[in-house]
Amino acid sequence: MADAGANAENGALARGALSRADLIRDKAYIDGKWLEADGGASIDVDDPFTGEIIGRAPSVSEDQAKAAISSAEKAFPGWAKELTRHRGAILRRWFELVMDHQEDLARLITLENGKPLKEARAEVAYGAGFIEFYADEAGRIFGETIPSPVEGRRLLLEPEPIGVCAAITPWNFPLAMLTRKAAPALAAGCTMVAKPASQTPLSAYALAVLAEEAGLPPGVLNVVTGKAGMIGGLLTASSAVRKISFTGSTEIGAKLMEASAPSIKRLSLELGGNAPLLIFDDADLETAVETALVAKFRNSGQSCIAANRIYAQKGIYEKFLAAFAARVDGLVLGDGFDEKSDIGPLIDEPGVAKVREHLDEAVEGGAKVLAGAGASDGRLMPPTLLRDVAPDALLTREETFGPLAGVIPFETAEDGVRLANDTPFGLAAYLCSEDPATIARVGRAIESGMVGINTGLISTAVVPFGGVKMSGLGREGSSHGLMEYLNLKYLCHAGL
Asked: Which PANTHER family does this one have (predicted)?
C-alpha cells in the first residue's frame, strides 16, 4: 500500500480521501505479486491542483520489466484455453467490483489527474462499460464454416488469441484507456503487460487490485511503471509480445511502429487528433453551442478527440460567437474536488505553457478575445474563446490540449470541408446542421475515422474508436475491437 502516513501529513489524501485506502499502491503488479522496484526506485505522483506529492509509483528495473513479459508468456496457454464463459465471468466480476468502488476510483482519478470529479465519475462509468461489454463478447467469439467449392472438403475458420499483448496508456483518461485495451485482450484469451503514464499510474494499479479480487489468474494482467524508453524498448523487442496497443502522440506511435517492425507485431495506434467542428448556417444554435462546449472543453480540453479547430459558416458566425462566449464565461475554473468546477488544472506546467503559446500566437495574428484569457494560476488555465483566428494559426496546426477555443469563419460547405481536411490527422470530426443532405455529404467527405453529428459526445464501448491518416491504426471498442486481439486460423479438412 502507498505511504498513507506521508499522504496524510501533506494533506492531499485527506482532501481526496478514499473509503478503501488499499486501492492506492506503490508496488508493481507482476505475476500476481505486488513488488517493490529493485533498489526502491520510484516516481513521484502529484496532485495537479495543489502540486503536492500524493503517492509514488515504482520505477521498475529492466529485469522486472522482462519478468512481467515472461509472466504474461507463462500465463498465456492456460488463459487462452480457458472456457470463454469462464473468462467472461471473471470480467463480469471485475466490472461489478469497479462499479462497487466507482466513487473511490473517481476520486483517485481527480487526485492524480486533476479533472473535475463529475468528469472522473463519468470516466469510471465509461471505462467500466468496456469491461462489461467484453465480458459478454467473450462468449461470442465465433468461427465460420465456408461452403467448399469442391466435394469432400470442409473449410473452417477458427479465431485464436494473438498471445501476449502490451498496453501503453496516456494520462488524460487513466482508467478508461486501460480498460478499453485490457478488456478485449483478456476476453479474447490474450495476456497483457500494461504500462500506464507516469503522471497517472495510481488508477491502473487500483484496477489491478480489483482484477485480482475478481479472480484473474497470476500473470494474465501485469502492470509496470518506470522509464518509458526502457519499458517500451523491451516490449517492442520481445518476440513474446505479439501486439502493442498505444494511445499517445503520433511521434511516439511512429517510433513504436518502427521498433515493432523486426518482429512483425500487430499494432493498434490511437494517435494525434486535431479534430475540426463545422457549424453550418442551418444548425440549431443551442445544439451547436452545446456541441462545441462539450467537444472542446470536456476534460479541460485534454482529449485526443477535442474539437481543436472550430469553423462557423458566416450566416451563423456572429450569433454562435455571442452564445458560445456566454457559455464559456459561465464555466467555473477550480479544484476538481469542488463540485462546482467545470474546468480543472492541466496535467503539468508544459501543458499550460503550450496553451499560452497558442493563445499568444493567435492574438498576435489578429484574433480577438471574447471570453477568458486571464493569467494562469499554477496549472489552472482559464477557459478562453477567440474570434477571427487566422486559418493557419498555430492552434489549427497543433493539438492545443487545453481550454482554448478559436473560431474561424467559412463561406460554403465546400470551403468548410476543405478546411476540415487540411490536416495530416483524421481521428474525430464534428458537424452541426439540420439539413439531412448537408449531413450526408459532409459526413462522407470529412477525412476522419469518426464523425459526431449534432453532438460532442461520441465515445461508447459498443462502437469502433479509431482514426485514419496519421491518427493511427486499428479500432478499439465494439466487436471490431475484439478482433484486434484474434488471429483467424483456416483449417482445410479433405477426404470427407
From this structure: SUCCINATE-SEMIALDEHYDE DEHYDROGENASE, MITOCHONDRIAL
| CA angle (18 as vertex; 12, 20 as ends), nearest 5 | 135
Task: For residue 44, give the C-alpha cell.
Answer: 513521484
Q: Output the DSSP codes for 287-356.
A: HHHHHHHHHHHGGGG--TTSEEEEEEEHHHHHHHHHHHHHHHHTPPBS-TTSTT-SB---SSHHHHHHHH
Catalytic residue among 132, 270, 447, 484: 270
Structural domains in the chain, sorted by start: 15-271+472-490 (3.40.605.10), 275-453 (3.40.309.10)
pLDDT digits (tens, 9 = 90+) for 397-443: 999 999 999 999 999 999 999 999 999 999 999 999 999 999 999 99
**Cell numbers representing residue 343 in the block:** 474546468
Segments in the chain below pLDDT 50: 1-13
The C-alpha angle with vertex 37 and arms to 51 and 108, in degrees rounded to 5, equals: 40
What is the SS3 assignment for 146?
strand
The CA distance from 349 to 361, in Å, is 18
Q: Where are the beta strands (DSSP E) in 18-105?
A: 28-30, 33-35, 42-46, 53-58
Give every CB contact of residue 76 below 8 A, 6+ residues apart in sequence. Answer: 161, 163, 164, 190, 191
The C-alpha cell at 100 is 462497487
User: Which grid cell is 463?
Assistant: 462502437
Cell of 354: 503550450
C-alpha to C-alpha distance for 298 and 402, rounded to whole angstroms = 10
